[in-house]
Amino acid sequence: MILFGESLNVISRVIGKEFKEADPAKRNPVPIQEEVLRQKELGMDYIDINLGPAKKFGTELMPWVVNVVQEAVPGMPLLLDSSNIDAIEAGLKVCKPADQPHIINSIMARPERYEKMVPLAAQYDADFVALMWGPEGLPRDENERAALAVELIYFANEAGVANERIWVDGIVTPVNIQQQQLMSLMNFQMMLEEIAPGAKSTCGLSNISNGPPEHLRGILNQTYMVMLEKYGMKSVISDPLDKQLTAIAKGQRQDIVDLIYGMMDGNEPDIAGLDKELQDYAKTYKVIMGETLYSDSWLEI
Q1: What is the pTM of this model?
Q2: Which among 202, 206, 177 has a CA at the least distance from the CA of 192?
Q3: 2-241 fold
Q4: I need a surface site. Which of 10, 106, 113, 268 has the fewest CB within 10 A?
Q5: What is the distance between the alpha carbons of residues 59 and 233, in angstroms, rounded to a whole number?
Q6: Domains in the chain: boundaries
């Protein structure tokens, strides 16, 4: 599993302070560079630079951040993440060659967005994340996701961007309010290879645990990542501090993967015979699948 480090974010207390500073002379690059070095050491494969809206001075800020990051981790591929299209282009202009193509994160499945942004991917030889957020918002099911994917990917192909340069994000939703959408996304993952051969996939993994208590977020993220990977997910936007998730993603916890894959294949384990750690993953799988009613105490039952 490829990991996109998510912590270089405008909502971060430390990093966000530098991103919100309007005067370039007052910005401190050190916290940013320390963070990206930490992410690299923790096993992240890409760095996601998330400026948020960046409406006021995004066209100046994005290239500054890109240069600061590239100075610290030369050759590491970046995701440029902002709703400000001009800021994205300003960042692409200063991106230096990396081990993998840089990525525009993301392009919504809305004509007013993709008609402007897909040509940037072609012009600057960048990959892009195709976000399945359409004119009516979140798709209702896997079929609506598929229709949006076909529309956006067809446009990209016509613009000269091959499927192999596209990372499809079907959108992860919180487990405690939109459980059925989690199943829909997995169904969509199974359809993706037929819809767009060669296209890759990604997701904002931590959305599944947005709402549950902090102590439950890690195991939700980890379990769902394994489930998505079985159906073809190639990458996730990941919390670099979740070392267990990184270990699972990098093939170091095959016992956890085998348990979850087995349950997905219909092999019900003797949960009482598992150790406590694996019991927790089995219980979490059942919650995600809707076999157990969601509550904040599912690990205690």
Answers
A1: 0.96
A2: 202
A3: TIM Barrel (3.20.20)
A4: 268
A5: 32
A6: 2-241
